[in-house]
Automatic annotation (TrEMBL):
The chain crosses the membrane at residues 30-49, 55-74, 95-116, 128-154, 161-180, 200-220, 249-268, 319-340, 352-374, 380-401. GO terms for cellular component: plasma membrane. The keyword Cell membrane applies. It is found in: Cell inner membrane. Keywords: Cell inner membrane, Cell membrane, Membrane, Transmembrane, Transmembrane helix, Transport. The lineage of its organism: Bacteria, Bacillati, Bacillota, Bacilli, Bacillales. PANTHER family: INNER MEMBRANE PROTEIN YEDE, SULPHUR TRANSPORT DOMAIN-CONTAINING PROTEIN. Pfam families: Sulf_transp. It is a multi-pass membrane protein. This is Uncharacterized protein. Belongs to the TsuA/YedE (TC 9.B.102) family. The keyword Hydrolase does not apply.
């Protein structure tokens, strides 16, 4: 079976060939089934929840569809840069962040949201918990086979081992919530720092500074590539013409722009940016509560205890997550790529450890690659930049750990997984 006949996660090959493989035939029954489930869930949300929830489901659908179509990775972007110096995906990140910051700036400056309220960004404290949590997350995502968004879209694409990653991601999040007081009260923590409001620059000045940083990082990746001459990314299965919108692989930079726009729409709709891991903590904490644990006493839930007693469908992050999974499922089925894959013992062990580390790390670091890195930087929060640096440091260490679990580490110009 060819590489492209299998569900594709953030672990992809990079080869010298520039010819794109053809797509498989659409899995029509799966597409129809996915559309029926999506319609049923949207109807349920429309009847039982505020109008915001079905809108967020649609936005999540777009996020998942985009992530899968472009195989837009955060885990792979960090690994490619750390292992062989390939910065193509990281430059796509910079494009995504530049567009997001440009869209976020006027929204955050005015506080405007579609349904009233006050839109606000993800600006979180900087301290020991952030450093430790982001470092742990960087290791965990390289062992678990995907980050927070990558786990969701890989599950939607049928990659079986990612169900293990997701389960232990949730478990790790719950443990992190239970230990939250220790990290916040017993470890040094500084106040949140915003490039816009903590510096006097305002959102206009913060945007200029941010764009300069993104341009500098993109330039630096070019310098690294010139020095290391890494392999380029393998072409993805595609199709020509307008059908490419629905079935073919999307260019990374096109996907970066779409993801930024969808994140801005999330901010306008829900009054807060895109996040992923809060929902994992909520699901796991409700389960722990049902098993007899006093989750409401944990520091993470102080002031938000009511969330533990209400339906998960009232949570905007939960609805977005379901949308991402469904969107990735529809994208994989439309490309004829959905099928469950074999699980090997070493891969499963890596998924257990990686999931636990990501879940715990995300709670300590006030978010994951989405809530802290993407939405944090887009919100002009210093913690987002620090998160990225520490997660990259964790990635370097994880390159030495991956072979222990039978996971590949790119070393040559001819193969890149």
């Amino acid at each position: 079976m060819s590489t492209y006949a299998q569900p594709i996660s953030e672990q992809q090959s990079v080869v010298k060939s520039k010819s794109a493989p053809a797509l498989n035939r659409p899995q029509s029954k799966l597409v129809i089934g996915g559309l029926i489930v999506t319609l049923a869930l949207a109807t349920f949300l429309l009847v039982t929840q505020h109008i915001v929830q079905p809108i967020l489901l649609i936005i999540g659908l777009g996020l998942g569809y985009t992530l899968f179509h472009a195989r837009f990775g955060f885990t792979s972007a960090f690994r490619r840069l750390a292992s062989v110096g390939n910065g193509q995906s990281l430059r796509a990140h910079m494009m995504m962040l530049a567009v997001a910051c440009t869209l976020f700036a006027p929204i955050l400056a005015t506080g405007f949201a579609f349904f009233g309220g006050d839109a606000s960004g993800n600006v979180s404290p900087v301290g020991v918990s952030l450093l430790v949590g982001a470092f742990m997350f960087g290791i965990g995502m390289q062992l678990g086979g995907g980050c927070a968004s990558g786990t969701l879209y890989a599950v939607g694409g049928g990659r079986s081992v990612m169900f293990i990653t997701l389960f232990f991601f949730i478990v790790g999040s719950v443990i992190g919530a239970a230990h939250f007081d220790f990290w916040m009260e017993d470890m040094p923590t500084a106040e949140p720092f915003s490039l816009a409001t903590s510096t006097g620059l305002g959102y206009g000045g913060a945007l200029v500074v941010s764009l300069a940083i993104f341009g500098g990082i993109a330039w630096l990746t070019k310098v690294i590539e010139k020095k290391k001459n890494p392999p380029t990314e393998a072409p993805k299965p595609t199709i020509s013409g307008w059908k490419r919108i629905f079935r073919g692989a999307w260019p990374l930079f096109a996907a970066a722009i779409v993801l930024a726009v969808l994140n801005a729409l999330t901010l306008l709709t829900s009054e807060s940016p895109w996040g992923v891991t809060y929902a994992f903590t909520l699901w796991g904490s409700q389960a722990a509560d049902a098993l007899g644990f006093d989750a409401a006493s944990w520091g993470f839930w102080q002031g938000d205890e009511a969330a533990l007693q209400t339906s998960i469908f009232t949570d905007t992050t939960t609805v977005l997550n379901f949308g991402v999974i469904l969107g990735a499922f529809l994208a994989s089925a439309a490309g004829g790529l959905f099928r469950f894959t074999q699980i090997r013992f070493k891969n499963a062990a890596a998924s257990v450890i990686g999931g636990l580390m990501m879940g715990y790390g995300a709670r300590l670091a006030f978010g994951c690659n989405i809530g802290a890195y993407f939405s944090g930087i887009a919100s002009f929060s210093a913690h987002g930049y620090i998160w990225g640096i520490m997660a990259l440091a964790g990635t370097f260490l994880a390159l030495y750990l991956r072979p222990l679990f039978g996971l590949s580490v790119p070393k040559s110009k001819d193969s890149f997984c």
